[in-house]
Amino acid sequence: xxxxxxKPNRTFSKEYSDYKRYKxxxxxxxNERCWYCDTHDWIYQWHRRYQIDHFxxxxxxxxxxxxxSNLVYSCPLCNSFKSDTWNKEWINWLDxxxxxxxxxxxxxxxxxxxxxxxxxxxxxxxxKLYLHIRQVHNLMDDLTILVRKLxxxxxxxxxxxxxxxxxxxxxxxxxxxxxxxxxY
Length: 184
Ligand SMILES: [Zn+2]
Fold this sequence. Notes:
Layout: H1 23-29, E1 51-54, E2 71-74, H2 76-82, H3 88-91, E3 105-107, E4 113-115, H4 118-126, H5 132-153, H6 161-183
Antiparallel strand pairs: 1-2, 3-4
This protein binds zinc ion (ZN).
């Protein structure tokens, strides 16, 4: 399975003096997904709990604090694991806007993430992409995509009762997983 579903693209050009104002443009440019793990923000109650990471930490690079090209749409997990970590290995981190992440990371059919190169093993372990919760997020993401396809093919008004009951069961199951995820 490919790692990145939709390649991010920085299109926003307006400049703000406070980086926090960039959250919605980042959400759009990063296709509502965490730059580091590709988790969709709906898993964390949409963008409310998503964070703005400074790829080059603002503590070390204060001049980049409000620079849009240094900002990353990030899930709370990746942002907390990365924190202010900065050393030579991070310099090897490739900008996904310019590079194909799918050549460096992959998802197994069991939704487990694996690194494909030595350099990226550093990032893989630092961001703890091996954690079981990452697999759960990937599984939920694929489940949601399937549900959306089902909704498109069989809109509520045209579905049979049997199909609607089945959809309701899927939604309930998804909500239960979400609640468990919240407890994490
Ligand atoms: Zn993440």
